[in-house]
Each structure stands twice: as structure tokens, then as C-alpha cells.
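Sample log: DUF4181 domain-containing protein.
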Amino acid sequence: MGFIGYLVFFVIFMFSLEKISNTLLGVEKRKISETSGKNFNRWGKGIILVISLCILPFAFTKGIDGIKWFWVLYTAIIWGFQAIMEWKYIKNSKQYVTTIILSMFIISFLYNIEHFIN
């Protein structure tokens, strides 16, 4: 199975994992933009994006390992921020737990991506 096959399998797995996690935790999916944290969320993600875009050229100078670590750290930061925002602004919901579970799998996939490419 090539990289595209692994990628398709991973995407299907992630959608299934999200549905199963939400069902087991009894999560009714909500967006942060529907809460009072809308502006803070927008500004936080914007700041993370700008900082990441400033760091990206340095990651390219470090070769494949630099790029891989850039994406691992970027994913950890952006999904960690998302989980914190869900925990803080979406009260009486365990939606942040699903976000943490999904982020662990995505980070693991990115960390081990060279095994899927070869």
C-alpha cells in the first residue's frame, strides 16, 4: 500500500474515531465561534499562524527532519490551543477530550510519516 493508501485509511480512521469518541462521551458538537471566546480564538489562531509562518523558512533549512518537526510542533500547538479553548468556552461538554484524542493520533502519524512514505 502506498502513501496515498495510508493517508486515505488514516483520514477514514480519524473520522470514525471522532464519531466514536463523541458518541461514547455524549458530545454534541459545538463551535467556539458560537461562544463568547470567538474573538480570542480567532486572535490566538492568527498569532500562532503568523509565528509559524515566520519559523517555516528556518525549518526548510534543516531538511526533512526540520520540516517534520515543524509540522509536529505546529499541530501540537494548534490542536492544544483548540482543546484549551473548548475546555474553557464550551461548558458542560467533553468535546475537548475528543480533540486531545484526535491530536495524539495526528501527531503520532506526523512523527512516524517517514515509515509510511518509504
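Observation: The radius of gyration is 16 Å.
Observation: Residues 20 and 43 are 31 Å apart (CA to CA).
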